[in-house]
Amino acid sequence: MKPIQVGLLGIGTVGSGTFTVLNRNQEEIRRRAGRGIEITMVADLDVERARAVVGERARVVADAREVIANPEIDIVVELIGGYGIAKTLVLEAIRQGKHVVTANKALLAVHGSEIFEAARERGVMVAFEAAVAGGIPIIKALREGLTANRIEWVAGIINGTTNFILSEMRSKGLDFAAVLKQAQALGYAEADPTFDIEGIDAAHKVTIMSAIAFGVPVQFDKAYVEGITTLQAADIRYAEQLGYRIKLLGITRRRENGIELRVHPTLIPSQRLIANVEGAMNAVVVQGDAVGSTLYYGKGAGAEPTASAVVADLVDITRLHTADPDHRVPHLAFQPGSLQDTPILSIDEVITAFYLRLQVADQAGVLAKITGILAEHEISIDAVLQRESAEGEKQTDLIILTHDTVEGRMRAALAQMQALPTVLAPIVRIRKEELK
Amino acid sequence: MKPIQVGLLGIGTVGSGTFTVLNRNQEEIRRRAGRGIEITMVADLDVERARAVVGERARVVADAREVIANPEIDIVVELIGGYGIAKTLVLEAIRQGKHVVTANKALLAVHGSEIFEAARERGVMVAFEAAVAGGIPIIKALREGLTANRIEWVAGIINGTTNFILSEMRSKGLDFAAVLKQAQALGYAEADPTFDIEGIDAAHKVTIMSAIAFGVPVQFDKAYVEGITTLQAADIRYAEQLGYRIKLLGITRRRENGIELRVHPTLIPSQRLIANVEGAMNAVVVQGDAVGSTLYYGKGAGAEPTASAVVADLVDITRLHTADPDHRVPHLAFQPGSLQDTPILSIDEVITAFYLRLQVADQAGVLAKITGILAEHEISIDAVLQRESAEGEKQTDLIILTHDTVEGRMRAALAQMQALPTVLAPIVRIRKEELK
């Protein structure tokens, strides 16, 4: 049988990786897919660079539309990124009846519903394993491996840059700014690291996982996003003393009144497996009512790990493209007609525990005052740690771990505590999850 | 559309779990599968017990053949276990054109090739996610999620009973026999625990993973199997001092001259994520050339975790049974015509590092003698730990960690060392893997 012909849009890091992996392992891949898979056309504005990668083995053009218009091409792989031209090209490829593979989490988190609907109408597949957690087959696990379950929550370290930074901050006791510079020098953080360190990239990914886990549309605009830029080494240290690690987690959880969808630094117990995921690695924990807790771990970025996911999607499409479109695996795990419009909860409605650090005057009655305010807001306390103040020092750190509470209540309590004359600096508050 | 009708053969722990999960989550499952899935018939020799579980919701019969012969039944789920009647029934169901779901690792590890061939000829699917690592979707990950990769090795904690025992031995400093009794009392080990503690169950599972990872037939008879019954608390303690944990691993690895397929207690570095998998939990690490290391963690046994895998298989079949049989996911990941007969290596050809504990006379020249023998066999030493002997004691423990070597060489060296008059007891040797 004639090989499946693939057209690549964009041949940067992941594109080159995809080309390399597909060539190196072509024999194994053919044995698995039952048919060869070949990249026969590549579009990139930098035609010279593209030629340097593919040599004579594929036709190189500058205009992506040439690839899409080519009737020989069965599958279009979009690796351009962003919401702009990528969206136009993906929709155009679908209109032309091409199956699409994309690693573009931003595009899917924002415009996924429109894209999947277009694909459904045209009877083609849009595969996106590479969009979340790189080479870890987490989309497949959620969408196919755990279909028996009512998913309760998903929590993941899904941004390698920030996990690398947090690991370094902890192991070396350094502050955020110092580690960021080092991460940039090592290539773990980009020159403009905003998308990573502000949590936006993680929010794109958890938005996609949320839709698949709960059968709701993708709705990035409803996600709560908080990055790691204001984290201080002191809090990482205190957390450790209390038996916790701080990780940037993407979390989505089903509640009675809606779905939580959020990204923020989070204290998690050190003995949890996911707390021990270090460096640029990714890991996702999924809690299902039948299976309990499962965890998926691996490289979340990089040329070949991401290519691993892109090529797996190509194999899936090759294996399944002759299937009756109504009986393929649905894009968002649930049949298109079965999506629900369960509301995404505002951050004020989210339920978590909290870590609080208050710089307080070292005088009698301060603790009573603060715990009184928490009690007034019905927030119960799990643990208190007060740093012994040094000889002659007039202030000290007071660390409080609370039990679960509604965020809105904590916000009100924080405002009251912050107004106390004995609270000497902005209160640090970090959410805490037991993940069990 | 009419629901998919499922017939259950055997309704013990996993069968009841499957019935419960399918009923409790039927609405979510229908939204995912695009069609209802119903257990309409159950066969169990204990008809009363079966009726107590299913009530009026399914027909209960004593004879499994009645289920298989029923033209209304689309999928037969085999949960009887063992090689005997289960094999006959699975083959009969296939002949009748039924798709089959099974959790029976023993059957597949031994007779898998015959069963998959029969299924291929008849154009039906045999799904077996529940056969390996319970609720963890590791078959799907290997067979579909990592298809881009040349798999290099797979190593897993795939028997919960033995991992529970090893965890308890380590944390409480107890010996094997004491912990086994406790595990039996808690229901973590069966009254006859032979299959678990002798490594046979793990060997069935790693045999299946090996076939899928490397595209070779299942061949349980070629697996090397060593259990945990002779493990001593002292070695767990020494391993810990050297920075290692001891786990019962199922390992399969591609070498230039063939495939390693083995189950045995193994030292692994404590900082590896898999070294921190405690209690009855399972985890599998897969090393692929593109993706690097990925890990899959969760519950490897129990009613609902195993049911999670059984029901996921039912959903897969429901989604895909209309697909062209030649374009379904192949049973063993590779197309039937593409399996290779790469030899399984004998244990003498396997390459690992070793932990050795020698009880030696505390006198001059002993270490020189022993290291001399290792050097003679070209086995190089990674670390040596000699316990300081107490006042007046005439013997001591000598611990040696070696670098990688061919097992046959180690066997020869061990025989020579054992013959030394200064070696006072049988030498303990445990294999060691870096898993990186």
Q: Any overview of this molecule?
A:
Chains A, B: Belongs to the homoserine dehydrogenase family. Chains A, B: Pfam families: ACT, Homoserine_dh, NAD_binding_3. Chains A, B: One of its GO terms (molecular function) is homoserine dehydrogenase activity. Chains A, B: This is Homoserine dehydrogenase. Chains A, B: It is an enzyme of class 1 (oxidoreductase). Two copies of one chain form a homodimer. In chain A, 38% of the residues lie in helices and 25% in strands. Chain A is of the alpha/beta class and 436 residues long. Chain A folds into three domains: 4-137 and 303-338, NAD(P)-binding Rossmann-like Domain (Rossmann fold, 3-Layer(aba) Sandwich), CATH 3.40.50; 138-298, Dihydrodipicolinate Reductase, domain 2; 351-432, ACT domain (Alpha-Beta Plaits, 2-Layer Sandwich), CATH 3.30.70. In chain A, the strands form two sheets. In chain A, strands 7, 8, 9, 10, 11, 12, 13, 14, 15, 16 and 17 form an eleven-stranded mixed sheet that branches. In chain A, a hairpin with a 2-residue loop joins strand 9 (244-255) and strand 10 (258-269). The model of chain A has no long low-confidence stretch (mean pLDDT 96). Strand 12 (292-299) of chain A pairs antiparallel with strand 12 (292-299) of chain B.
- Provide the β-strand percentage band of chain A: 15-25%
User: Compute the gyration radius of chain A: what is it?
Assistant: 24 Å
Instruction: Tell me the structural class of chain A.
Output: alpha/beta
Mean pLDDT across all amino acids of chain A: 96
The geometry of chain A reads as: elongated
**What helical percentage do the residues of chain A reach?**
25-40%
Main sheet overview of chain A: 11 strands, mixed
Which homologous superfamily in CATH is the superfamily of the largest domain in chain A? NAD(P)-binding Rossmann-like Domain
Low-confidence stretches of chain A: none
Return the CATH topology of the largest domain in chain A: Rossmann fold
At CATH's second level, what is the architecture of the largest domain in chain A?
3-Layer(aba) Sandwich
Helical stretch count of chain A?
15
Number of domains of chain A: 3
Per DSSP E runs of 2 or more residues, the count of β-strands of chain A stands at 17
The top-level CATH class of the largest domain in chain A is Alpha Beta
Distance between the termini of chain A: 49 Å
Oligomer: homodimer
Largest interface: A-B, 67 and 66 residues
InterPro entries (chains A, B): ACT-like_dom_sf, ACT_dom, Asp/hSer_DH_NAD-bd, HDH, HDH_cat, HDH_CS, NAD(P)-bd_dom_sf
Domain ACT (chains A, B): 355-431
EC number (chains A, B): 1.1.1.3
Protein name (chains A, B): Homoserine dehydrogenase
